[in-house]
Design a protein that fits this description.
alpha/beta; 6-stranded parallel sheet; single chain; 48% helix
Length: 385
């Protein structure tokens, strides 16, 4: 089974291009099913985040162009994305996912969210029935790699999420944040994190809610709430707005924003696709608008931690490689079993077993190490209890 992937990320594709190939969880599940139904495709997993959209395929026979298949499945124009898409196959594909899971390829080096996003991509493919054995093992190994990589320590001395970066940027733009009025549009994971961080900085924070269910809706401690439909009223007099939703429409549009008597000085858009009308700052001089590409500190990597994480990547690549070799060897192993049964038929059990082992050892490629033989013997003993 051949592995391949294709994707675009912040390194080659600006936010205006990435948002055209960004998908909700429901859309990802549909894409997984569509891709896995294509001729020659045995499995498909789509990973879609604010900073990257990638498709991983397990294929039989000739490798297809995964980027072209993704665009076709999404109804997108492949020619528009081809210059920014990067395709990897085989071991390069495996290494890339391991590094992605360890946040080595993140916009914010060592950021916290990508590991959860990798796990979510696999979970969605499982639900869609498109995670075949190869992709299941690849993504589970990558998740284990990411977890081990986090255990190595902080990769860089920078805040570990876009929400952290947004709060730091607001502090640079507005000065001390204590007492500042900030509206956070969206109460998903990113919105709650941003609201909590702003509260910790001393801001007076209001969070918008589309609905409220007692005992189910989580509102960050210390934050006021406002109905989503009243967001412009809640925006009146605020000094900053942070928007982080999965809305297909603008949460902040130019015309109603222009009607505000007291406009926020800074707008931060953490969504993909974007929440805030992109030309808003051009239409209203003096209003700053930042999106996730404007919050792009790389930080300097800690060389000691980086070396440990890279070793983690190599170790987990070897795990997956061993699994792949074993899986590819299963038909040959069945042939060995059949040959051994044919050889020992009619012989005494002890003599048959000894001769079968000798013949098997003689047929293995050199070097045949004592360690490998002892490991084999240990496994047989374990299964003989």
């Amino acid at each position: 089974m051949a592995l391949c992937m294709s994707g675009l990320d912040y390194a080659k594709a600006p936010v205006a291009l990435r948002e055209q190939l960004s998908f909700t969880k429901n859309a990802v599940a549909g894409l997984d099913r569509t891709l896995a139904g294509l001729p020659g495709v045995a499995g498909a997993v789509v990973l879609s985040t604010c900073n990257r959209t990638e498709v991983y395929l397990s294929c039989e026979g000739d490798d297809p162009d995964p980027g072209d298949l993704l665009c076709r499945a999404a109804g997108a124009d492949y020619a528009a994305f081809a210059p920014a898409l990067v395709t990897r196959r085989g071991e390069d594909c495996v290494r890339h996912l391991m590094e992605v899971s360890c946040a080595l390829r993140s916009q914010i080096l060592g950021e916290d969210q990508i590991l959860t996003q990798v796990k979510t991509a696999l979970a969605l493919a499982r639900e869609a029935g498109t995670a075949d054995a190869t992709l299941e093992t690849l993504f589970r190994t990558a998740a284990a790699c990411g977890k081990a990589g986090k255990g190595a320590g902080r990769l860089a001395a920078v805040p570990a999420s876009a929400a952290h970066q947004a709060v730091a940027a607001l502090g640079r733009a507005l000065g001390p944040l204590a007492g500042r009025r900030v509206l956070v549009i969206g109460n998903g994971e990113m919105g709650r994190l941003a609201a909590s961080l702003l509260r910790e900085a001393g801001c007076a924070v209001t969070v918008t809610l589309r609905s409220y269910r007692h005992g189910e809706t989580i509102v960050p401690a210390g934050c006021a709430v406002a109905p989503y439909e009243d967001r412009y009223s809640a925006m009146e007099g605020a000094e900053a707005v942070v928007s982080a939703t999965v809305s297909p429409h603008y949460t902040v549009a130019a015309d109603p924003f222009g009607a505000l008597k007291s406009k926020p000085q800074v707008l931060v858009d953490l969504a993909m696709p974007r929440d805030i009308q992109p030309d808003l700052s051009q239409r209203f001089p003096g209003v700053a608008l930042w999106n996730i590409d404007d919050l792009r500190p790389q930080g300097e990597a800690d060389s000691r931690v980086l070396a440990q994480v890279q070793k983690t990547v190599e170790d987990h690549m070897e795990r997956f490689r061993q699994w792949s070799v074993y899986r590819e060897s299963l038909p040959a192993l069945e042939a060995v079993k059949a040959a051994v049964l044919h050889r020992v038929r009619g012989m005494e059990a002890e003599e048959a077993a000894c001769k079968a082992v000798d013949l098997l050892a003689g047929g293995l490629p050199a070097p045949l190490t004592p360690e490998a033989l002892e490991a084999c013997a240990a496994k047989i003993r374990a299964h003989s209890r």
